[in-house]
Amino acid sequence: MNQEIKLQQEQRGSVWEVLKTATRLGLTSFGGPIAHLGYFREEYVNRRKWLDEKTYADLVALCQFLPGPASSQVGIGIGFMRAGFWGAIAAWFGFTLPSVIALVLFAYFLKGTSFSDAGWLHGLLVVAVAVVAQAVWGMAKNFASDRPRATIAIAAAILTLIIPSVFSQVGIIIGAGILGWFLFRSTPDSKPVPISISIHKKTASILLILFFVLLGVLPIIRQFTDSNLIALFDSFYRSGALVFGGGHVVLPLLQTEVVPTGWLTAEQFLAGYGAAQAVPGPLFTFASYLGMASFGWEGAVVATLAIFLPSFLLILGALPFWNWLRHHPRFQAALYGINAAVVGILLAALYHPVWTKAIKSPLDFCLALAAFGLLTVWKFPPWIVVVFSAVAGVFLSFISS
């Protein structure tokens, strides 16, 4: 018991350190949600050791189950485990604010600007290949190192690629959990590192109930008011609550909410989407651009809070139950299979969309290989590799033009 208390105390940190770390990640984490998980793993697990590899993998698996932006939910969960409720706020705020500011300013000053041919942006897409490859390699060594789990990982990657359904990843993880439940029942495993979850299960249950209440009540309130901001809050809350599969999947939902209503034109929507690809941090901050372009500063604030609120309610509501379940032997066996499947899903994402969007020529592959070497062999900080890749992308664009 004393050892468990000691471990829990060591995991506590200050809100300020969470905010500083998350803000640095928010300024340098390019490449989309899968790349973000790679940046998080390097910073929170390898560099700062705020949580161990297994806890991180378990948390990623949990967030794959939940609707909403998985990388943001992982960040919120880590912030909460590190510094409580305000730590969760700080982790989200730091990771999200840089891209919110960039997209709001774009909506205000730079309408119509295109980033599609920017060499530095292509360099950032290429570095995402190296970041994701590093994450897949590191997690595979821990969670798919034997024949049964490697087989699960490979099968998960194949199924993810040939069945690109919104719900396929959830089904694959459930299937892997069932396999793990039966295959790894007798596998000896060390107990998970104790995590201090400073929220009662009753409070967590209230948060989960609130998630569903808002989902049902907001459309009704919208019908009885002429407030554009309430309508905006309803539209973006629903989009954040009902999307599985990450930031790109939310785009059709958002387009349906803002273009047919006349809040934005299709051209404005696509221009903002192009800008969202060029900034670090979560793609869900595209909502900040849409809110700003539709209803000004108030719209930006309302849209941003609304689209991320479901993530807070779900992750804080689920964490206590997840922490309880992961200590049960049968559930640990299921996690053996689930974590192997997560490796496979990341491997599939390394190919599509990360590789297919970034690697267009042998020079692109050379840059990705160089970035991978800087990260894994030379142990350069990720932000330095990001800057190097952006500059190299500009250079390569001049060579190929």
UniProtKB/TrEMBL annotation:
Q: Which family does it belong to?
A: Belongs to the chromate ion transporter (CHR) (TC 2.A.51) family.
User: Is Transmembrane a UniProt keyword of this protein?
Assistant: yes
Q: Which residues cross the membrane?
A: 85-108, 120-140, 152-184, 204-224, 236-254, 300-322, 334-354, 380-399
A single GO cellular-component term on record: plasma membrane
- Main subcellular location: membrane
Q: What is the lineage of its organism?
A: Bacteria, Bacillati, Bacillota, Bacilli, Bacillales
User: Where, per UniProt, does this protein localize?
Assistant: Cell membrane
Identify its membrane topology class: Multi-pass membrane protein
Molecular function as annotated in GO: chromate transmembrane transporter activity
Q: InterPro entries under this entry?
A: Chr_Tranpt_l_chain, Chromate_transpt
This protein is called what? Chromate efflux transporter
Cross-referenced NCBIfam families: 2A51
**Organism, per UniProt?**
Ureibacillus thermophilus
Q: Any idea which UniProt keywords this protein has?
A: Cell membrane, Membrane, Transmembrane, Transmembrane helix
**A Pfam family the protein falls into:** Chromate_transp
